[in-house]
Amino acid sequence: MMNTFELPGGDRIPTIGFGTFGSDHCAPEQMAQAVETALTAGYRLIDCAQVYGNEHTIGEVLERAIGSEQISREELFVASKVWNDQHAPGKPTLALKGSLSDLRLDYLDAYYVHWPFPNYHAPGCDGDSRNPDSKPFSAEEFMGVWRELEQLYDEGLVRHLGMSNMTISKLETVLPQCRVQPALIEMELHPSFQQPELFQYCLDHGIRPVGFCPLGSPNRPERDKTEEDVVDFDLPEVRAIAEAHGVHPASICLKWAAQKGAIPIPFSTTERNITSNLLAVNEDPLTETEMASLAAADRDCRLIKGQVFLWPDAHSWQDLWI
Q1: Active site residue ranges
Q2: Predicted pLDDT of residue 318
């Protein structure tokens, strides 16, 4: 039985999801096979995004699963995101309808603003790439996108709205202006990067955190890797607890996230790992002492720095996270 969290309004969301960001190293057909394996294993939350370039093949899998009565639509929680180059008026609506068509669904369970600005980068670009049209965060621009999503919510095309890659200062600016409050916020979250202030801020405002890179994203694009990055699996706190439980360090990272109240969304193409990730959050919980040990493992190591979104006069990637 899949454990769940309650969202505002009473809907339930699984405590673990299956991420589908792997477009830099996983072909759409491979991703579709991974999603099929995940559904068979018992996953019911599938986290998608138009920019990943694989919603069309994932949609074929979802259509088969629902059509064969293997899974009912009501059992599934399918999310997608509006990409940065779709922020202009009218484009979020077109983006959502495009995702619905590709995913072969009548509605989405959640729809996120993927990044809080319209800054674009070319697919596969290196870490030094910069778009001259990029600009800093604008609450006015963001709210233009959000109000269009609120209309899509009113029309029943999406059941919950979400934000992603936000900071407390940005949230303090936009939340008072939201007619429909976000139910979910995606944030980078793993033992070496815990964002405790942002995490608690979300909980205090009734927003459920969804953690991406829950395993430290060892397969993230090369542009996002730097020499000072920490490998979560090598953290002594993680390794010691994994040894005590007789499991891979990945399981400890996922147990930690779910027990904190987050929803981790790991990705794998291996059936063994897909299954073990699911089991990790549904059995053999960590003790309070182990959770305290992992809390002390925070290294404040952001892996997805987003430097390709910087505007011309920005100083460093930290400017994105003010």
Answers
A1: 52
A2: 96
